[in-house]
Fold each of these.
Amino acid sequence: MSSFVNKTSPLIINSLGDLELSYKHYETTVGKLCKACSSNQPLQQEEIEKLHRNVMLQYVKFQKSSAEFANLCKTTTTSSSPKEYEIYEENLESYEQSTALEGRVSKLFLALNHTIRTNYPLANIAEPDLRVGDIRSTINLEKPSKHLAKFPHFRKILGDGNCFYTSFTVRFLENIVKKSNDYEAMIKFIRSDADGVKDKNLKQFVIDTLTNLSKNPSSLEKVLKDNQIILPLVRYFRSIVANEMLVNQKTHEETFAISLLGDFPKDADTLFDKSYVQLVHDYVSSMGKDATNISISILCRMLDFPCRIYSDELPKPVDALDGREPKAIFIRASEHYFVAYSKTDKVPFEEKAKEYKKRDPMAGKDTVPDRSSFEISDEELAFSLRPVSISPKDVTPAKKIRITFHFKAGTKNKLYIRGEGSPELSWHKGIVMRHVSKTKWVWETSCSDLSSLKFKVMLNDTTWEKGNDHTLKTGENRPEFIPEF
């Protein structure tokens, strides 16, 4: 900025500088907490919630500081003199920079929440934005999409990367309320472990939620407006898909790769550097990642829940389960999903929405909650200025391990690795190793405790190599082996 503005309007410069420092501190804090969530030695959920509270306080403080800075810019632009106009232009530039910082802060907060929800589905953390909106009429829309105009009503869903799964959750719960048979079938599906989900607490949460809804159907809209219920359900549905893809890797691997290339073209350069297990984790299990076509198909099939999708990119709708009357209709416009209701759906859901609004005046507001609703005291703000302290003994840095086996397997054979000590490894099912050259097979992982890592390879995941389990010594990050069969 010019020296004229530095001299004439120091308040703007100092405020922007303070805002930038606040952002850097916030960015560092969020980064530490994300690493803590993804560590091989994760913190307890209560500790994560406490640390997240600290981050949330910083988030709210930044929002308030940004608003104060915007008002400061406005108060220095009241005159039309040449000098004041020059100051106005400089202040406008500062304002635009602060707006960009505010956007980055919001993205970091959302990314942090996605990371926590991925690893701690039931964590009680602040979620500023409503995921599920009210049912609305399409009649008064100025520019409805070409497919949305066909339906009398729709429901807005927040575009946070989970929009398909959130849309699916909404219609799934609405059907549970209407049909007791669907409720009973779902409870049986969960309790028989047909879902493949290993998190017992999450499974029980889903059972409790569905049971409460079946007993109190009038609470549906209140449930849909509760992020602390909807987001764990979204995580549960993601887990169902991820488990199916891992258990039946041979069935899904090729289709999944094609789907990723089509849905995430910007990631094409890095996709083939990751194992299949890692890709399933990053693009299916992880919150905030858009649903792929194969994920949608698997979810609908696993839950016997046929869906029809109208996309602005396609002339005709696509059915997730061909030949079945859809239980849900979704609109996909500008890479975003939301719910559409047919004429037969209109009356009961509209009445439920009206009934809920009578009980709760705030239920009709489909906007981002006012930031002032996050009330914090001066003491809490002072506490939020202190950086999050995560002890090194709580978060052991994971080491990148590259394991190489030299073996000439032939054109029709593959090497698989099984073991323990890494989240991806299992003694029950092997992971295909990456074939990097004629006789070289590689598998990579991150591990904070090498002493816990044990593994062996199998030919075509059917024939074990001879000898004892392989183990690694401290500092042995790139071991190489020659297996015998």
Amino acid sequence: MPHIIEATLDNCLYVASDLREADKQELQAVRGHSNFREILKDGYRQSALTFCIKSDQGLPIAIYGGGTHPTQPHVGIPWMVSTPELLSIKTWFLRKTPWIVNSVQEHYPILWNLIDVRNTVHINWLQFAGFQFGDIKESFGPENRPFQNFYRFR
């Protein structure tokens, strides 16, 4: 059965080597480059919490977590990236969604971030998880892509 553990840097690097295409596109749009190992290293180091979803075989499938907003300490910035393998545990993942979200939300009364509007799988999951959506920034990041605000209150 899949399980969730506290993530290690090695877990992040493993996921970085096999990211979903939508996650690659989103990371590149935000950071302006495709060195996903470096991007996930940065995310791991800058986050207050990081978790890893592992497969039945013990392989990392997804990394998620949250960092503290730099000027609003009561706001957490949630994030998640995964390998294509996440779809193979879709039912388990959807059942665990409340626990996954609460594992970050319990540390922050507000969760807020932006999502690439092309990443429809994650947008659908965020809706399922009870997030609300705000304005779309039509030109965000080095690639000037549209990104949408999303948030959730405890």
